[in-house]
Design brief:
By secondary structure, the chain is mainly alpha-helical. It is about 50% helix and about 5% strand. The chain contains 21 helices and 5 strands. The chain has helices at about 15-20, 35-40, 45-65, 75-90, 100-115, 140-150, 190-200, 205-210, 215-220, 225-230, 235-245, 250-275, 300-305, 315-325, 330-345, 350-360, 365-375, 390-395, 400-405, 420-435, 440-450; strands spanning about 5, 30-35, 70-75, 90-95, 120-125. Strands 3-2-1-4-5 form a 5-stranded parallel beta sheet. Helix 11 runs antiparallel to helix 12 (about 250-275) and helix 15 (about 330-345) crosses helix 17 (about 365-375). The protein is globular, with a radius of gyration of 23 Å. It starts with a strand and ends in a 31-residue tail after the last helix. Mean pLDDT is about 90; it is low at about 455-483.
């Protein structure tokens, strides 16, 4: 009876603990499941599936060369596993842990129940710095470093793969999905090429380039989709970055890459928040914010924001660029959310779902934490209200980016501003600062800080850093399924 390696968001060969474990079994096969629940989820976009299929094509070839078949099935996970059990039998299910949306959490609980009922041992391994069943954040940064500094998993030369009829990979058309936009190169080899190019010199201007949409497309690593889909491990990126820093030919490159290294820690720091509290995908971090915006949701404002016709050229240019390409640099993402939350007074949930569909690199843990952080509903972070006028002056002073994406700007065809910036921001501040001054808000802020705040230097600032302190290592590693 074979061991089955269940691929989810870890579409790679290198540094893959479940794959390495499968080599110790007499028989093995690999599985990827295209789940209808995923395709029907409000954050799904065809670009996510198209990128996945391109990654699977390369991965299937890599595994086949080592004797391991990769089955790609369409259906809900329990249904597919049941069919696989009938066809091949199964004693072990091997996979990485996943910190994802609520539907994937529910799926994992269903799979765990199925495994118990069918005598299948489900073994999971961490693949990021996220820690399951973390009791508190004290010592988290030390644990992150220990994981990331550990040697990569040694991969086997080959497998004893079972005989299986693979068939062709599904296509967008066969799944009833229409292509949405052009994609960057997918797969493990593309991820490695991006990483080598960035660390080898392209990242030299990283710190200066990352804030402007004019320079960030080339100056940033562009690894975010590959980290989201797991075509490269966080550990591989971390270790390659530290090596590049140590061997950089000059201080400029070393300094730039240190900034990038900090963001790798930031990546897992924010994912941990969703792992610890899955409800933040749906509910405010601070419940004192419940009802703050929900009842005032303006559908016309929301649609204008989605379509890039707010009358604020930097906002509109960024939204149109994002919709066309599936990518936008972080500062401009933050500006889009800030504008929706403060200027338009929109609750973060629907804008968050819309943006999730636009981002090829959609990573739920980072995304929903950031939607709330930039909307002011965490209760602990400084209110970040971005002026679109100032952002244009700072990061597109000659209007190059705006003219590229909003060619009608300056003509009668371009709409007037949808709101008065000064009045809208003043009203938003008045509401939020009044709320934060209440005893209930202060009490909740302390609880959120205790549960989710960073404790270690080396993480980019997340708010009240003066109150955060380094602390010793926490409890030993745990690998239980549930958060």
């Amino acid at each position: 009876m074979p061991a089955v390696v269940w691929f989810k968001r870890d579409l790679r060969w290198r540094d893959h603990a479940p794959l390495a474990a499968a080599a110790a079994h007499e028989e093995a096969l690999a599985l990827y499941v295209i789940e209808p629940t995923w395709l029907a989820s409000p954050s799904f976009d065809p670009q996510h599936l198209a990128f996945t299929l391109a990654c699977l094509a390369e991965l299937r070839a890599q595994l086949a060369a080592r004797g391991l078949p990769l089955l790609v099935r369409v259906g809900e996970a329990v249904e597919v596993l049941t069919q696989l059990q009938r066809e091949h039998g199964m004693r072990f299910l091997l996979s990485h842990e996943e910190t994802g949306e609520g539907w994937s959490y529910a799926r994992d609980k269903a799979v765990a129940g199925w495994c118990r009922a069918h005598g299948v041992a489900w073994l999971e391994w961490p693949q990021t710095g996220v820690v399951r069943r973390l009791r508190e954040r004290t010592g988290w940064a030390s644990r992150w470093s220990a994981r990331m500094d550990a040697p990569e998993v040694a991969m086997p030369a080959g497998f004893s793969g079972v005989q299986a009829e693979l068939g062709d990979l599904p296509t967008l058309a066969s799944l009833g999905v229409a292509a949405s936009r052009p994609l960057p190169a997918a797969g493990e080899s593309a991820a490695q090429a991006l990483l080598d190019d960035f660390l080898g010199g392209r990242g030299r201007d990283y710190r200066r380039a990352l804030s402007s949409p004019l320079t960030a497309a080339d100056g940033c690593s562009r690894l975010s989709p590959h980290l989201a889909f797991g075509t490269v491990s966080m550990r591989s990126v971390h270790q390659a970055t530290e090596s590049a820093i140590a061997h950089a030919p000059d201080r400029a490159l070393s300094h730039a890459l240190r900034g990038f290294a900090g963001r790798l820690r930031w990546h897992c720091h924010f994912m941990q928040k969703l792992e610890d509290e899955p409800q933040i995908e749906e509910r405010n971090f601070a419940s004192v914010c419940d009802g703050l915006r929900e009842n005032d949701f303006d559908r016309e404002r929301f649609e204008a924001w989605c379509e890039g016709r707010t009358g604020y050229p930097m906002v509109d240019a960024c939204m149109r660029s994002l919709r066309a390409t599936g990518w936008l640099n972080f500062r401009m993402r933050a500006m889009l959310v800030s504008f929706a939350a403060y200027h338009l007074w929109l609750h973060w949930r629907e804008p968050g779902q819309f943006l999730a569909r636009q981002f090829l690199d959609y990573e739920p843990g980072i995304h929903w934490s950031q939607m709330q952080m930039q909307s002011g509903t965490t209760g602990i972070n400084t209110l970040r209200i971005y002026s679109p006028t100032k952002q244009a002056l700072d990061h597109d002073p000659q209007g190059i980016f705006i003219r590229r994406w909003v060619p009608e700007f300056g003509t009668p065809a371009y709409p007037a501003p949808i709101v008065n910036e000064r009045a809208a921001v003043a009203q938003a501040k008045e509401r939020l600062y009044a709320l934060r001054a209440t005893p209930e808000a202060r009490e909740q802020a302390q609880a959120v800080q205790q549960r989710h705040g960073s404790r270690k230097a080396g993480l980019p600032p997340t708010g009240r850093r003066a109150r955060e302190r380094a602390a010793p290592v926490a409890a030993p590693e745990q690998q239980e399924l549930f958060r």
